[in-house]
Batch of 4 targets.
Target 1
Amino acid sequence: MKDVRQIKVNGHQVGIRGLDRVLEELAPAYAPEREEELAAQLMERLRHENYIPDSARQAYAQALRDQLRRAVGLEPLSASSGGLSIQVACGGCAGGDQLLQAVYDALSRLGLSGEVERVSDALEIAALGLRGTPALVVNGEVKAVGSIPSAGQIDDWLGRAAEVKPSKH
């Protein structure tokens, strides 16, 4: 299911089918004065392919608006959760899966929270300034490209990014 992207809605990861495609179509029309209108279009178009409960409609609308803002290079409107922002770039290789699991394992070991995003679209990978995969980006800073770092190295990077001292192995 390559056309499903995981996003955070009310603190929960949910899969949204067709998000990348619709963002690609709407982003070129973005202007600050049209943001609300385009966010409404995004929600309406995605409702046809995704189950969005009425009780969570407003939370989905905000999360999707944030995705639109990210797609055009703006900061999301939602307040940050205070956790880490982690991106694992992979072109569909096994190394990307291994790196993603290593990141989840490190977060668990360190007791940290964070938003982990898998980036597999070639244009998004290039927009991050990455020249290879798998790659790890923590809070906007590229940490590794083309290899899977050791568990200790990942612990160190995540611990420093969260301003906590990582445990020793």
Target 2
Amino acid sequence: MLNNYNYSRSYVRQHSTCQYDQQYYVQPGDTFYQLAERYGISIIGIEQANPGVDDNHLLVGQTICLPLPPCQNGFQYIIKPNDTLHHISQMYNVTVESILNRNRELNPYNLHIGQAICIPPSIDVDCPMERFHIVRPGETLHELANRFHISLQSLLFANNHIESPNRVPVGTKLCVPSSMETIARKEFEK
């Protein structure tokens, strides 16, 4: 027994797919309330991202999803076991230097599991609207248009920096028009 915590029933890895959120590995003593306070998110948001997960029976090593808010002109990433800045930079097509510039307090030689860092976009553009999204591994424009309830054409129109709609590089910043902007543009084009 370490720190009065019973590890005998811990380290049960349950595979969790976090479609829109960050995957997080439960640490000793974690609760939804504590995670909400640490990452500045709502308990309801955590519950909605993890249907069927009982907050009273979290196991160390269990994977859950955290709906993290974006950081300034980027997105938050939670450090996972065996992560290095080099690995993270390659995964999101950014440089280690750009990650360090965005996270000035970050010690690259002392990353902590569960630590949140800001990942900048690899292709940065100014978005006239406030909403933007940084493309993550496995995402497609079609899927993103559906997620944001806009047409693929509207998403492409707002992002003329996209060279090929069939392949958008991970880390690309996309401007996301609201569905109201899309309706207004359609009316204007008539």
Target 3
Amino acid sequence: MLDFLVVTGGSQKTGWNFLGILLVVAIILYLVFIVQNIRQRRIKMIIKEHKRFTWKNTLLSLVEVVAFLVASVWMFNNVFLDNPDLEDSSRITSSVEYKPLVLETGGSGNSSYVTIDSAKKKVGSQEYTFYIDGQKYKVPGTQASVAFGPKVLDVSAEKIPYNDKVLAKKDQQYQKAYVAIYTAVYKKN
């Protein structure tokens, strides 16, 4: 009784990745500009006007820094905190592919559909190895889960919007030894 689910992250097949990199570079260049501009205005104020403080200079510097912080927070939010709803068809396109697992006979008398390699380090990790159509696949444990027993999905795979009826049908068809590969891709906007 083995159900093996592979969750693959989709990729944006658009120029948005390139645009994002350009925006990050622009924000870094803007930071360099701010530092140079504040330094230049401050030196000019001290040498030409013989003043150490003016409200005009301080407010201009404050506006530049606030603009930088707003742009940085916006980019951080879009790059690191964007977690789209997998059922939101307006943002992503998703598909599920089902493939039967091939029984691996390792020659040592043991056979298995999936082998789990665990790293015993400070931060533990797992890697699943399995065969489909004669090809060997290795998937990190963060992108896959194994379901045993009568339940088709385990706890970590519950977040993926699988169709329970289709999974039950594939359970029957592949004798509870199959891979369900979920792929999500951002839509072009």
Target 4
Amino acid sequence: MDQGARDRQGSDGFSSPAARERTVSPDRILSAVGNEHRRAILNALHSTSNETLSYDTLVERVADRVRDEETALEPDAHRQRVRTAMHHTHLPKLEAVRIVDYESDTGQVAFVGGELEQDLLALIEAYDTDE
């Protein structure tokens, strides 16, 4: 690993605060949190004591919170759909705006957003309801 990569990664394997300093536009952040699945991911991470969960635990929590409105899928099929969408769509989008770090080697997902993201979550949470 080169020195630059080591500087961007903290001792816990996640990005250091310096690496997370961003020039990501507010529009990209709003777009990232504008999806129910991504908000469920952020809420699940933010509600844990260290804001880190295993990928499998995160899938379970997101699947429990987000219901498939199109069809009445069996729970296993619903969880598999959530798992696939998280891996291919939602986590990459949240990583792109530096709100989460997903370490596929360890299976850990961490909330690394700052005050802006926390403020957005607090504002949006009042409108998100479990139905």
